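Try this one yourself first.
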């Protein structure tokens, strides 16, 4: 996603809308990733050098997580506590992905690149959601 696309998503005078959009974008991207892992765990496992059973488990987790984030995004006024939980979960996912890459996983080059890129993407979502939450907290709910 380009900076221009993010600017278009964020273009609104309502901080609540910005927060909801970034949560929804997170849900869509995470859900697509989870669906890919569920539907194509074998081929993706071979491409990435990761066990297909691990991808199936991650896919199921990501699908459930994406549904939860999507429900949060659908609320007119997402509560701060669950939004903070999403932000912290995203940061934990990004950190654990990099730790797993360094300590546990032995992926292909494509798998290593994918792991770093998805960790950066998820951390980026956390940063955008945090900024949007802070902006929203500057107004009365």
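Now uncover the answer:
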């Amino acid at each position: 996603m380009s900076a221009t696309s993010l600017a278009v998503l964020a273009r609104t005078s309502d901080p609540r809308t910005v927060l909801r959009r970034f949560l929804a974008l997170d849900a869509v991207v995470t859900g697509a990733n989870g669906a890919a892992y569920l539907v194509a765990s074998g081929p993706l496992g071979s491409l990435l050098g990761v066990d297909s059973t691990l991808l199936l488990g991650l896919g199921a987790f990501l699908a459930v997580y994406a549904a939860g984030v999507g429900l949060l995004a659908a609320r007119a006024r997402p509560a701060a506590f669950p939004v903070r939980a999403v932000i912290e979960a995203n940061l934990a996912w990004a950190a654990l992905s990099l730790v797993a890459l360094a300590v546990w996983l032995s992926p292909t080059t494509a798998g290593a690149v994918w792991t770093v890129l998805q960790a950066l993407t998820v951390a980026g979502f956390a940063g955008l959601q945090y900024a949007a939450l802070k902006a929203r907290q500057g107004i009365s709910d």
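Discussion: The CA atoms of residues 34 and 58 lie 7 Å apart. DSSP finds six helices and no strands in the chain.
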